[in-house]
Design a protein that fits this description.
- Helix 10 packs across helix 12 and helix 13 packs across helix 14.
- It contains 18 helices and 14 strands.
- It is α/β, with parallel strands linked by helices and 434 residues long.
- Strands 3-2-1-4-5-6 form a six-stranded parallel sheet, sandwiched between helices. Strands 11-10-9-12-13-14 form a six-stranded parallel sheet.
- The model has no long low-confidence stretch (mean pLDDT 97).
- The structure holds nicotinamide-adenine-dinucleotide.
- Nicotinamide-adenine-dinucleotide (NAD) binds next to helix 1 and helix 5.
Length: 434
């Protein structure tokens, strides 16, 4: 199959590289000249484990190409995937579909008859209808299909998720689109991956429902963690106690500073907007969104409380800034609210993240001091705060940390350590829900 991937970000680049690894010919197109230039020089513009080798291998095999030019990429394409961003629209929280609509308008002149346009971006119900309308308006006589193929990969484990997904969802309104998508995913079907075929609108909604449910699970265990702190119970015991019930399942029951990233925050909001527009009530999702928003800043207050209730003039070392480990993605990271809460309270912040420093500089306040590693961040600080669960923070050298810190205080917002172990080393230990 000849595939064109429009948008070469976290989803487009991983999907493009994996499809080419399946044996398809893939041309990835992006508007960002810097990104395309980097990829043409063999540099990967994002951090995703294993992606550099996968891209290099498939470029060398002649199956994976990059270009800025749609007119060069599109002729002969069997399927054109849209994998552009769908951020929250400024002001009202609806999904901003301007990039998706622009991609549809831009591709229309170059589509061959029989082309299947597939939306991989996370888009509200009905977006496929609009993509179809935009292309139809530009090419009234063209035979083409529009399908939905939402992506469920997780940053940090994206290649594994793409190649061994729990399921692939395709939303189609005609048989030709179904046949083309079946052919594209055929290599996965050999491993007995479930390929769920449904109507386009159901596929669009499936993605939002999945993200809202996962966000609910995180929000739920975080609130149970807060209750555990009040009643002196360990949330990990509770999480294990409920997670082994197969009706509940153990995943996404890890308490922490609140969910962030490029998906859950914007997708839960966009789902609420869809529901409002349809006069449907999603009160559970509303509660999850509110709970998570307040939680992020409350983590800043938790640090201030650990500092004795007054952060004025105190120095805080933040270990980790990205919304989770193994990504450089800072979008909606809890670190943003924690930094603001600390700065508002008069603290100074020294920060280190293994991969997210460049993106952090663009998003965080100028006053943050960026450090070369965790120990430089702790040098002269009154507390060390683990914000992201990077492996690099799982085995800190506490002798060294004790010498560098002004107070032996560790606030562990990811519960990477055992209280007894840390207290034995003479540190005060503050965790989440235990
Ligand atoms: N990041 C994730 O983990 C993840 C997981 C599942 C689904 N998604 C969804 O996938 C979509 C893409 O997310 P992402 O994180 O990869 O976004 P991203 O911002 O990393 O990448 C989007 C890319 O599209 C490019 N682009 C925008 N308009 C374009 C156009 N008209 N032509 C060519 N290129 C264009 C941008 O330059 C950018 O490189 C979103 O809808 C997101 O919700 C993301």
């Amino acid at each position: 199959m000849r595939i064109v991937m429009i948008g070469t970000g976290y989803v487009g680049l991983v999907s493009g590289a994996c499809f080419s690894d399946f044996g398809h010919h893939v041309c990835c197109v992006d508007k960002d000249a810097g990104k395309v230039a980097a990829l043409l020089e063999g540099r990967i513009p994002i951090f995703e484990p294993g992606l550099d080798e996968l891209v290099a291998k498939n470029v060398a095999a002649g199956r994976l190409e990059f270009t800025l030019d749609l007119a060069e990429a599109l002729p002969g394409a069997d399927a054109v995937f849209i994998a552009v961003g769908t951020p929250s629209r400024r002001g009202d929280g609806h999904a901003d579909l301007s990039y998706v609509h622009a991609a549809a308008r831009e591709m229309a002149p170059y589509l061959d008859p029989g082309a299947v346009v597939v939306t991989k971006s996370t888009v509200p119900v009905g977006t496929g209808d609009e993509v179809q309308r935009i292309i139809r308006e530009a090419r009234p006589d063209l035979e083409f299909s529009v399908a939905s193929n939402p992506e469920f990969l997780r940053e940090g484990a994206a290649i594994e998720d793409f190649k061994r997904p729990d399921r692939v969802v395709i939303g189609v309104n005609d048989e030709h689109a179904e046949a083309v998508l079946h052919e594209i995913y055929r290599p996965l079907l050999r491993n007995e991956t479930a390929l769920l075929v449904m109507k386009r609108r159901a596929a669009e909604l499936t993605k939002y429902a999945a993200n809202a449910f996962l966000a609910t699970k995180i929000g739920f265990i975080n609130e149970i963690a807060d209750l555990c702190e009040k009643v002196r119970a360990d949330v990990h015991d509770v999480a294990r106690g409920i997670g082994l019930d197969t009706r509940i399942g153990p995943r996404f029951l890890q308490p922490g500073p609140g969910y962030g990233g490029s998906c859950f925050p914007k997708d839960t909001l966009a789902l609420l907007k869809t529901a409002q527009d349809c006069d449907a009530s999603l009160r559970i999702v509303e509660a999850v969104v509110t709970s998570n928003d307040t939680r992020k800043r409350s983590m800043g207050r938790k640090v201030i409380a650990a500092l004795g209730g007054d952060a004025q003039g105190k120095v805080v070392a933040l270990l980790g800034l990205t919304f989770k480990a193994n990504t450089d993605d800072m979008r909606d990271s809890p670190a943003i609210a924690i930094v603001r809460a600390l700065l508002d309270a008069g603290a100074r912040v020294r920060a280190y993240d293994p991969e997210g420093m460049d993106q952090a500089r663009a998003l965080l306040d100028d006053e943050v001091v960026y450090c070369a590693d965790a120990y430089e961040a702790m040098d002269g600080a009154d507390a060390a705060v683990i914000v992201t669960e990077w492996d690099a923070f799982r085995a800190l050298d506490f002798d060294r940390a004790g010498e560098l810190l002004r107070e032996r205080l560790l606030v562990d917002l990811r519960n990477l350590y055992d209280r007894a172990d840390i207290e034995r080393l003479g540190f005060r230990y503050v965790a989440v829900g235990r």
